[in-house]
Amino acid sequence: MSLFPRFLLALLKPIILGVVVAALLLFLFPEFRQGEGLKLNWLNQERNVPQRLSYYDALAISAPAVVNIYSVSLENSNRLFRSRPIERTNLGSGVIMREDGYLLTCYHVIRNADSIYVSIQDGRFLPAQLVGFDEITDLAVLRIFEQNLPVIPQVEEPNLRVGDVVMAIGNPLDLGQTVTSGIVSRLGRNGLANYFDRIQTDAVLNPGNSGGALIDSNGFLVGITNANFKTLDSRRRVQDVNGVNFALPYPLAKRVMDEIIDNGRVRRGQLGFSGNGYDNRGILVESVVPNGPAAEAGLRVNDLLLSVNGEDTIDLSKTLDLIAGTRPGAQLELVVSRNDELITMTVTVGELNPDMVFNS
């Protein structure tokens, strides 16, 4: 081979090799096609730590509105040489519901209190005024007169479900604001009350949590914490049951608060009978209060209540809510089945008081 072809071949080899390498680089690194250049960050990239699951943001918007409540009562001593009354302080929590200073707590927290004080998380310590209370739901409305108050986030219908993550915020044992978490264990009446539902949760509640907030994972108020389940041991001593705690649903608590603010108290309707669901048809009447509204209307034991004001009674809870939500003095039309005969009667709704033991 002559000198010139050898020289030409030697010149073409690196050119061909360069084209092949360039084609491979364009194929392997598409950013070269846009002229971005090769990014070699992977050479000095730090270990990528996954972001932790946290409810910090939810608590940041809700926890400031949960307050510590101290109710002070003066009790006279029966000791012979002690003339001064004993001062006792009851501990609880509360939730600021409105910018004008209205807040919710549990009635048992401030029952028989001579003075009530509220400690806000920003350090303010303020006297509180009792607006009113409702013994049936164990709720009380307080008011503090202060500006720039934090208000807990609220949504009209929380649509809570069993299994939803919830957090309880309060001041257990006066340790300072504390958060516990769990899930919604059950929704319903839980056998504890015939007039309202409760939220059952395994979020831990201790003395001082009563009246605090139960919030969802977004920070919205879903309930007011008020009780943990108790039982008696073999020696008849009261013991707490771990993992079984209760809260009043937000829609109920809000309704009670609004009525107390507007009217000074909560008025509920009642008819004066008790019963249970029967064969998915209605409510089988088991007892009737003598001289009560239902008795005066003609309702008898063993009647099968089929409808109230045109609403069927298949859902016992729904029927009880309908009656309780009816203004005392109003009239309801009942349709009952008695000995396979349909009977329509009109009943004037009475007013429920906390001592009532009947379903409706």
TrEMBL record:
TM helices/strands, residue ranges: 7-29
Gene3D superfamilies: 2.30.42.10, Trypsin-like serine proteases
PDZ domain residues: 260-338
GO biological process: protein quality control for misfolded or incompletely synthesized proteins
Protein keywords: Hydrolase, Membrane, Protease, Serine protease, Transmembrane, Transmembrane helix
GO CC terms, sorted: periplasmic space
A molecular-function term among this protein's GO annotations: serine-type endopeptidase activity
A Pfam short name: Trypsin_2
UniProt family annotation: Belongs to the peptidase S1C family.
Protein name: Probable serine protease do-like
